[in-house]
Amino acid sequence: MRITVDLAKCQDHGQCAIAAPAVFQMDEEGRLVYEGNPDESYRFEVEEAADVCPVQAILIED
Amino acid sequence: MSARVAVVGASLAGLRAAEQLRSAGFVGPVTVFGEEPYPPYNRPPLSKEVLSAPGDADPHRLHGMVAFRRRAAVGDVDFRLGRRVVGSDLAGGVLRLGDGSRETFDALVVATGLRPRRLPLPGPAAGRFVLRTLDDCVSLRAALLPGARVVVIGAGFIGCEVAATALGKGCRVTVVEPAGAPMNRVLGERLGQAVQRHHERAGMTFVIGHAPAAYPGDAAVSGVELDDGRVLEADLVIEAVGSTPNVEWLDGNPGLDLSDGVLCDNRLAVVGADVAVAVAVGDVARFPNPLFDDVPRRVEHWSIPTDTARRAAATLTALLAGTEPDPAPFTPIPSFWSDQLDLRFQSYGSPGLADEVRVHEGDLDDVRAGLLATFHRRSAHVGTVAINLSPARQRELREAFTVLASAA
């Protein structure tokens, strides 16, 4: 599974880091860091993270 | 033959319902009816980014800013856009459309959401705006010119967001609110007043404790006359005074409770629709959340369409298969955010239920520096609101409710 986050859209709401903490984290400065090629086993929570992103910045490329 | 599901409403809730039906393993035909001509799009940016974005007002370009991506799993879902459903017969499995045609279904998802309430005040129609749809946003955008005198009626979250965006565009902005401090139904009076002071320092004017009585003007609104006779001059007026659930198309079906949205049980099955398989999703659904109590409520928070769609799809799929829906209680944690000037609000739980607000971090005279408040009802923690708190802390704020949810 490949993930890209549109960083021009991302506003650091941090909701993805709640939904899929193994893949998305907010660092000490409150900025997003994420794993671009997570294991397929994370698909459910990654889809949830994409769903709950307030600015819909997360793209899952199947 | 496989059952046919009709989803009425093609906004976030309708889209998520279609997606979640596929996720739940439903493979039959799904048709989504939407009144608006646009494919499903995200509404929150309409009061902020889309309203303030530079460039032309082409609705299709603006729609591109907020359109939801279509997942491959819903590639075979039939979206009928620009098709308004005006009536229904649940027992017969029939929808009546605005053009007089009829469609049949075996199972129904109610996802028709809300429309803005309009004030029944005398005065011209031109110059009066509301904000809910992309078309509303396109109209309002064209009127929000630098120097324009804008009066916003209603100091809830949408009113305050629009007021902040208008101020950012160089408008002169007055917010009229009859019922106390801005956003006080969620934030409480003291925190609402703190935000009011912040917004006033940025140049926003508030008129609290007075209601509009009339809109003077001939061809277009020229101001707002208040209940004390005062007139606020205005080039445009934006009404942000709450919403009305879109349920009229369900009128006439016996057994339904449509007194405030559509009454559902905790599984999102429509109460009284025993003759049909029907669920409701999004902010039109009134359901009990055991996280707080057993009182059914509609929840107008952005997280709710996604949460209710997942549960409603599971319920619908089980009912169609003749199996028992998941007995585990449905305890979604409502959440929303709001961006106003240099403030970002993030909310978890239902702060609006509280009778007490406790400020844990921050200074009410400088909310911009960061503030954390918890909301309590009979001392039970029911909500959390953060202003300008680090995104790194959001998880911990929501976590408190995850614990409550697992105990519910």
Summarize this, please?
With 62 residues, chain A is α+β, with helices and mostly antiparallel strands. Chain A is built from two helices and four strands. Chain B folds into three domains: 5-115 and 244-321, FAD/NAD(P)-binding domain, CATH 3.50.50; 118-241, FAD/NAD(P)-binding domain, CATH 3.50.50; 342-407, Enolase-like, domain 1 (2-Layer Sandwich), CATH 3.30.390.30.
Task: Tell me what you see in this structure.
The complex is a heterodimer of chains A (62) and B (408). Chain A has 62 residues and is of the alpha+beta class. Chain A has one domain: 2-Layer Sandwich (Alpha-Beta Plaits), CATH 3.30.70. Chain A contains 2 helices and 4 strands. In chain A, the strands form 2 sheets. A two-stranded antiparallel sheet of chain A has the order 1-4. Chain A has a two-stranded antiparallel sheet with strand order 2-3. Chain A starts with a strand and ends with a strand. The longest helix of chain B has 19 residues. Chain B is α/β, with parallel strands linked by helices and 408 residues long. Chain B starts with a strand and ends with a helix. In chain B, 24% of the residues lie in helices and 28% in strands. In chain B, the strands form 7 sheets. Chain B has a 5-stranded parallel sheet with strand order 3-2-1-7-19, covered by helices on one side.
Taking all Cα atoms into account, the compactness measure Rg of chain B is 22 Å
Q: From the coordinates shown, what is the CATH architecture of the largest domain in chain B?
A: 3-Layer(bba) Sandwich
Number of strands of chain B: 26
Largest interface: A-B, 21 and 21 residues
Provide the gyration radius of chain A in Å.
Answer: 10 Å
Query: Strands across the major sheet of chain B, in which order?
Result: 3-2-1-7-19
Largest sheet of chain B: 5 strands, parallel
Fraction of residues of chain A in helices?
A: 10-25%
State mean pLDDT of chain B (0 to 100 scale): 96
Strand content of chain B: 25-35%
